[in-house]
Design brief:
The chain has 951 residues and is an alpha+beta fold. It has 31 helices and 23 strands. Strands 1, 4, 5, 6, 7, 8, 9, 10, 11 and 12 form a 10-stranded mixed sheet that branches. Helix 11 runs antiparallel to helix 13, helix 28 packs antiparallel against helix 30 and helix 30 runs antiparallel to helix 31. The longest helix is centred in the last third of the chain and has 48 residues. It is globular, with a radius of gyration of 37 Å. It starts with a helix and ends in a 13-residue tail after the last helix.
Length: 951
């Protein structure tokens, strides 16, 4: 029989066997198809999101040929893409450069469309909100690609606008609603919904040119109380005459007149360097291919193949077990081991081909179906759905080869069985190999050492390679670990004891499933640990403007004090605040710098000043700012540097801002309620000190012998006629030493407050005071609707009062952690189900014996449940250990870079924590094994049909 004929028969038998065992075949196809589906969808999505150069130009300039701007540096030279430009001769002319006449810089016969934005306060369904209004004729065909209409109609006239979906969602408005620009009091009708394809999350309004900015400027000219619009840099979208485009000669001509040009024609077909004046002095930056990226891709592909082999391999073993009589008949008909291996391998080829085709097709289909959702997550539209045939073919081939590899081990095992064992259903006893565990333990130790060394040395390739070697070593140790499980069953009830001993005796089927779970969980734990660690680092670096659970209502103008009660009523009537607010005031010397900020003639200061003097020396001067800081930084560990950075002497070197209307001294006038509500200092001694007139100092670095030094310059502006009359003559300088209550060092990081001073003490030393606002306790961050209601109420009361609400450290990746946890959970359930099926196939005779001797029906269910749970739990625990190796190694790499940056700049944070994702680990280690065991018990039949045992 020729090779072709033999394989044709093997493929025919594999196809028939797959059709007979539809459930098992579907499981194998799913195990192969799911990773192929994910990789296919990721490939198509990545290629589609990464816009081509032409698509990027369309996002910037729509259907226009070029984008003209005025950088206000006079005649200039530029590179073809417009990213690099400089004034002619490399020197910008001195003095103010007037805006150029852009019409004169355009090519002859060209048509232009202007685009200019302005921030504004507009009315909403709930109140007021701030947004950007862009004057741009979005109805013009030249705007297509830059702005697209989603629903409704384009604006036609100066009393209409269109809005983006995020703006309407936030504001509660819809098509047909009316909104008013508060600065000019003009009302506009929203006629449609548009989107910026490059930024789907933008909250923006669009109006025709002349609808907002021009009326605003006229209103500012007529009324001095109306501030002029703070417009952005205008841009011109230009189309060449008769479709000729904008060529390089047109760009050079515009450069001579001071215009910067990004031309579609020039960017896509740039001129030679000899025709580019700036190229003579400009060295382009070229970035070579990264060997680290290549190593990462190879590592990911190798681990994905290993995962599929481990997942699908036990399923092929199930098929081989259940088909052993058929395979034995092949031996009786003259077939040898080659033919038996061919039949099992052909099953891998058939199911691998089906799984691959299914995965690629499903990946493409799901990407098309969920394209709007994916674009929403990415925040941009796909320019087009990009399919790379070469990459998709490579994915398919990897899936096909993986299916064959998954069947390789079961094929070898099946071919080694004797014909008699196959026909009778009996199996011989084989001793476990001692070589594999020894090699596995050695590889585990070697890989972990290489990964850690790569982390400390900053070589990510060693990290990736060492992590893979360590995981492969742990795979080699799994049979021994599974064998030890049997010893844990002593003293347990019947079902768990049998499950543990069955897993230990049949480690050939248990180990691959445990390895599959371990591989999936290891990847999840590695990524989740790294993400949790980087989020903790980001949270540490984030400087809050408020303490936790508070918001601040404030005014920096003493003339607006009378409006504070109305503002408080607006806050308390529209927001979920808890308890009574804590009022505060501000203190200053001389004329108020918030009002009289201009210098007097002759350069004399036009207002007073107040300085909280910081002593020098140990405990007062930050050593990271002092002489010898770099030498000190070189001796510090990351944790020692972190402790020093958070010390009172250093903390105000990088934390100096807050939500209170104070100067850089951060002195707030208040009482015990402010201390409790905002500072979170519930200390009777501190409260008593404030009541007695003693200030409470939160940063002990400013105190010496229990006292602080406060210097003031009482200068009065000539325009401050009332106070100048009371204090004629030159500015008066004073120095006061005040006894203070010094708070614990941890309160030095309180945002916005360095010292709380009683009002009577401030007035006693000659400072002027005025009520400035209130602090509120809030159970959660206010919603957009609540903030808009309060903004409208404050504006109605006269404005000039600000509400500072809690902010977040930044975007969180909790959704990604959830997706990773769900992926690992699904793989764990699948691998545990495969092993349970294999155990049922192997243990039919034992289960029949149990039923025959009178075991209750629930024993069979409980046994299946515990078998499934053991596989899931063992794999999760081993995967957690394996996943920590690359995560810790990569964080060590980050630590090395952070330490290097800190030693170059001692005030740079080197904090690089390693944080375990306990929630994800808890779900995988507890919830998933319990769910796996429960499902296995529920879906296992409790009764058997007794049959005569062979032999």
């Amino acid at each position: 029989m020729s090779l072709f004929t033999g394989w044709r028969a093997a493929l025919r038998m594999a196809r028939r066997d797959a059709l007979r065992a539809k459930g098992r075949s579907a499981l194998v196809v799913a195990m192969i198809a799911l990773p192929v589906l994910g990789v296919t969808a990721a490939d198509i999505t990545t290629r589609s999101v990464a816009s081509s150069e032409s698509e990027q130009l369309t996002a910037r300039m729509g259907a226009a040929d070029a984008l003209f701007t005025d950088p206000e540096i006079g005649p200039l030279e530029q590179m073809p893409d417009g990213n690099m430009y400089d004034a002619v001769g490399g020197t910008v002319p001195e003095g103010e450069i007037p805006p150029i006449d852009m019409r004169a810089a355009l090519p002859e016969g060209a048509r232009a469309l202007t685009l200019q934005s302005v921030p504004a306060s507009v009315t909403t369904k709930y109140g007021l909100t701030g947004t950007d209004i862009t004057e741009f004729r979005v109805s013009d065909p030249m705007a297509r690609g830059r702005v697209e209409l989603v629903r409704g109609a384009f604006p036609h006239g100066t009393d209409e606008m269109v809005a983006t979906e995020p703006f309407l969602t936030s504001s509660g408005l819809r098509i047909g609603s009316r909104t008013t620009v508060r600065s000019i009091g003009r009302t506009y009708t929203i006629t449609g919904i548009v989107e910026d394809p490059s930024d789907l999350k933008a909250k923006q309004l669009y109006a025709d040119p002349g609808a907002v900015i021009a009326p605003w400027r006229k209103a500012a000219e007529r009324d001095p109380d109306v501030l002029p619009p703070n417009t952005g840099t205008p841009q011109w979208l230009v189309t060449g005459a008769d479709g000729s485009g904008v060529d390089w000669d047109d760009v050079l001509a515009a450069n001579r007149k001071g215009a910067l040009v990004v031309s579609r024609q020039v960017v896509l077909d740039p001129p030679p360097d000899s025709a580019i004046p700036l190229a003579r002095s400009y060295t382009p930056y070229t970035e070579g291919t990264s060997a680290e990226e290549g190593a990462a891709v190879v590592t990911v592909v190798a681990m994905a193949v290993l995962e599929i082999v481990l997942l699908a391999g036990p399923a092929f073993a199930v098929g081989a077990r259940r088909s052993r009589r058929q395979l034995g008949l092949i031996g009786t008909c003259g077939g040898d081991r080659r033919h038996i291996r061919a039949v099992v391998l052909a099953g891998g080829l058939v199911l691998g081909a089906v799984g691959t085709v299914t995965g690629v097709a499903a990946g493409l289909l799901l990407t098309v179906v969920f394209r709007p959702m994916i674009e929403g997550w990415a925040g941009q539209r796909f320019g087009s759905l990009v399919l790379n045939p070469g990459e998709l073919l490579a994915i398919a081939l990897i899936g096909l080869v993986t299916g064959v590899l998954a069947a390789l081990a079961p094929a070898i095992v099946a071919s080694r069985q004797s014909v008699l064992e196959s026909l009778t259903g009996r199996r011989g006893v084989r001793r476990s190999s001692r070589v594999l565990p020894t090699v596995g333990a050695s590889l585990l130790a070697l890989g972990a050492a290489v990964a850690v060394y790569g982390g400390t040395s900053g070589d990510t390739r060693l990290v990736a390679g060492g992590s893979v070697v360590a995981e492969l070593g742990l795979l080699g140790c799994i049979p021994v670990i599974v064998g030890l499980l049997g010893r844990l069953g002593r003293g347990l009830p019947l079902s768990p004891r049998m499950a543990l001993r069955d897993a230990a005796r049949n480690r050939g089927r248990t180990a691959p499933a445990v390895a599959a779970v371990m591989a999936a969980v290891a990847g999840t734990v590695a990524v989740a640990t790294y993400m949790a660690s980087t989020m903790a680092e980001s949270d540490y670096r984030y400087t809050p403007s408020l303490t936790e659970g508070t918001m601040v209502l404030s005014s920096s103008d003493e003339r607006l004090t009378a409006q504070l009660p109305l503002a408080r009523a607006a806050v308390e009537g529209n927001m979920a605040v808890t308890g009574r607010p804590a009022g505060f005031a501000r203190a200053w010397a001389g004329s108020d710098c918030n009002i009289y900020y201009e210098d007097e003639p002759g350069g004399e200061p036009g207002c007073g000043s107040l300085t909280l003097v910081k002593p020098t020396g140990e405990g007062h001067t930050c050593p990271l700012r002092a002489k010898g800081a770099k030498e000190l930084a070189a001796r510090l560990s990351s944790e020692e540097h972190r402790t020093l950075m958070r010390s009172p002497a250093c903390v105000d070197e990088y934390i100096s801002t807050g939500a209170f209307p104070t100067d850089e001294n951060n002195i707030v006038v208040g009482g015990p309620d402010l201390l409790r509500l905002y500072v979170k200092l519930d200390d009777p001694a501190a409260a008593a000190a404030l009541e007695a007139g003693t200030p409470v100092l939160l940063n002990q670095a400013y105190a010496k012998n229990g006292e602080v030094t406060l210097k003031a310059v009482h200068a009065y502006n000539a325009k401050d006629t009332a106070n100048r009359k009371l204090h004629p003559g030159p500015a008066r300088k004073t120095t006061n030493r005040l006894k203070v209550y010094v708070a614990d060092a941890r309160y030095a990081t309180t945002p916005g407050i360095r010292m709380i001073m009683p009002r009577k003490t401030a007035e006693r030393i000659g400072l002027r005071t005025a009520e400035a606002g209130s602090v509120y306790a809030v159970p959660h961050r206010p919603s957009d609707a609540e903030e808009q209601r309060v903004s409208a109420a404050i504006e109605e009361a006269g404005g000039g009062i600000w509400l500072q609400t809690p902010s977040r450290p930044g975007d969180r990746d909790d959704i990604m952690l959830l997706v990773l946890t769900l992926f690992a959970g699904v793989v764990t359930l699948g691998a545990a189900a495969i092993t349970t099926g294999l155990a049922k196939a192997d243990a039919e005779a034992d289960l029949t014996t149990l039923s025959a001797v009178g075991a209750p029906p629930r024993v069979r269910r409980a046994l299946s449940g515990f078998q499934c749970m053991i596989v899931a739990l063992t794999g999760v625990l081993l995967g957690t250990v394996a996943g920590l190796v690359p995560a810790v190694a990569v964080r060590l790499t980050d630590l090395g870079k952070a330490m290097e940056a800190m030693r170059a700049n001692p005030m740079e944070s080197a904090y690089t924590p390693i944080v375990l994702p306990w929630t994800a680990i808890g779900v995988l280690a507890v919830a998933v094994p319990l769910l796996a065991g429960l499902l296995a018990a529920v879906f296992t039949r409790s009764r058997l049909t007794l049959a005569r045992r062979a032999g």
